[in-house]
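> tool_call: predict_assembly(chains=three)
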Amino acid sequence: MVINNPVIYAVNPQTLAADWPGGFWWHWVLFALVTIIVVILMVMGYIYIARRQIGRMQSRVGPNRTGPFGLLQPIADVLKVLLKESITPDAVDRPVYWLAPIVGLVPVFVVFAVMPFTDGGMLANLNVGILYVVAISSISTIGMFMAGWGSSNKYSLISAMRVVAAVVSYEFPVLLSIASILLLSGSLSLNDIVLAQDIPFILLQPLSFIIFFIAGLAEISRAPFDLLEADQEIVAGFHIEYSGIKFALFYLVEYGEAFLLSCLITTIFLAGWRGPILPEWLWFILKSLIVWFVMVWLWATMPRVRIDQLMALAWKFLLPLAIINLIVTAIQVLTLPQDSLWIMIPVNFAITAVLILFWSKKFFKLGWGRVEV
Amino acid sequence: MAIRTEPFVMNMGPVHPSTHGVYRMRLTLDGEVIIDIEPVVGYLHRGIEKLAEERTWTGVIPLTDRLDYISSMSNNLAYVLAVEKLAGIEVPERADYLRVIMAELQRISNHLVAVGSFFNDSGAYYTPFLQMYREREKIVDLFEMVCGQRLTYNYMRIGGVSQDVPDEFIPALYKLLDQLPSAIDTFDTFLKENEILLARAKGVGILPPDMAINSGVTGPVLRGSGVAWDLRKADPYSIYDRFEFDIPTGEAGDSYDRYRIRIEEMRQSLRILNQAVRQLPSGPVKADVPHLIRPPVGDAYAHIEAPKGELGFYVVSDNSISPYRCHIRPTSLLNLAALREMAIGWKIADLVLIFGSIDICLGEVDR
Amino acid sequence: MKFERYGLGMAKGLSVTLRYFFRSPSVTQYPEQRLHTSRRIRGNELVWDRQKCTGCCTCAKSCPQGVIEIVTSTNMVNNKYEVEKYRVDTGYCIQCGLCVESCPYGALFFSNAYECSKYRRSELIQDKEDMMLESGKKQPSGYFYPEIAAELPRQTLLVEKIIEED
């Protein structure tokens, strides 16, 4: 085992396989491949589940012709998209246009290195887990902006501006709501956050969950905040001019980020892989499927907000509530003894209800009106 | 500190997911705020008014089907009313009742499409759209039972309707009248009080009543601004003066009011249908009019309250088997006259919603 | 615009969608299951009765598109014209039904079939031979012929197929 290699210092030594044939690097390559394949398979499963579920909510059946129960539909989609012609318009900015899908895609896969699928079952048990996740997942926004700027198209430019404005605004509620979780768990590592959840944090911190859920939906541009690639207004947004495999990569980015958000919510709020009878990775996948069910349910029902309403929601509603939540949680952690944290549950629910009612009635104006020209 | 910005021109082209057809607008935008709209029409022009001069008087009726292809019965009705006014033909009473039943069913079907598309434009991913199309299937099934087609009916004739309804029509219509009110209530629960929809549509695209009257808009757009003008009460045609119904009007003139008016008009149409189907007399369904009719020399104008507004036909005859001139007052084109005033100052997302709330059909705009 | 009603409106919409999720979908799996079309359907092709036709060309005169082409000769058979050529270009036909309606001898019918796509446009033109009623290959529909409509199966209606449980 090589001690002087600085890479290994950043990694928890318990996850190193000392007797793995070939040593550290073969172990890393194999499990990195396993992680990528798991992510791609889960994304394809998510696409299938979303289509069937939306079909049932619209009184129709989803895809059911390709394979038994339509299970081969995502594979058929992938094959179709890969075999299509990549049409590149003349006036694009070539380096930017070609690199944009890659810059959008790589951070999504890289973040899954710290996601705990079982107890300690992650590629790298970083002790700065959450910080790593939030930091790296913001890089894919640059990819979307590059796509919007590189295709010489006014529609994609509008979409790119919307993407940057929305993602930058919603970083603050995400960080502040996670900060109140960190006060309870005491560590940034995702595995430690799961281990600290004897009571799931969704009960202890309901306001934090609501803020994180809404802000997360806005960051990955899913409904009701899917105006960043709104089909009815700006005709597919920043990936208008992409076809073929580059479009497949953007599609993978969108659903990969959705999978990422549901895994994060499972880990941070729903006690990750903890559960009584079934194996741990199965609990993890089941809980993330429940979160995905709720996300698709929202997608099927809600209309979408406008861009200035989106910004008003971030700055005037979520951010002040996140700050107040952080202060309240800090007071509770300091005053309550360690083993009677369950007192926080009714107190926090009451505070949540009061704050949401009070804030939405009094202090909150959702967006501008008509602008004088 | 003011940031210096420059307006740019963007083309919301003929091929776009939410202009309802091939309608082109050149928008001058400052960021996302709309400064100017310049519409370009004509992408669906088929020369219907010129083609009408080549066909016989009865042969124009299939052409009028294709004007506003979502509400074909109303177009047929307007044309045959104009020709009957010109030729002085009396229509038997059963034909009048059947015409009213078909026109009101067509109104419900058209408003289902309009409201469904309105929700679709606001972003709800086809769910309310598909639920409304499911109810519309029931109405279109009835039309298929009567005249054999589902979109271009060609049902009205000069002097009545073309054939009588089959025996199973009236029981099916009673079943439909039982099922539709609860379905409309379900739609109401679905999205009437949704906060996001309220934030998107309330107060957006306000059309003041004096500007509405000056621009020549009619139909739910005019009634949304508070002007209680409905041709079925103001200038009754056919036998509408025998039925009791109300005219819903809005207060603010915004997109939300226009959507609510369409839902209320559906309920009023159900009221008219309930009365008409119970008073349906027996008798002939078509007056004794030759197939190749030659009306006397003259001209006539007849207008009806089509689901989208006031649809009028102006026919001129010179005693031959074809019309000399057949001019159509296009409802949707004149409703679009107010689009610029309604949409300036709002954003692109609002433009799509305002456009959807006017409810146009490109077949009528371009003819 | 204030955030009124605290999210209750959204909750109502979500409950409606969840109710639809558990309802059985109203879908017919074509082509394994088919619905019965209307008895008066204006199908894609025409059916012609050679015995009753006299060659008066009223159908050709009343067609708005002019798709019917008739050539008769003066060999009078049973006091009727001999119809030598009767061609219908169903590619131009708009299925309006004025020809069927105007035939004074009841010799022209609509076909009951709606699955009549062809690979070439020239195959859409119907000749005299494959339009004839006597060949028994084409089922006429009941448009303007109530006695034929009475023998066809009843139309499947959505109002009767689905009973709402709420």
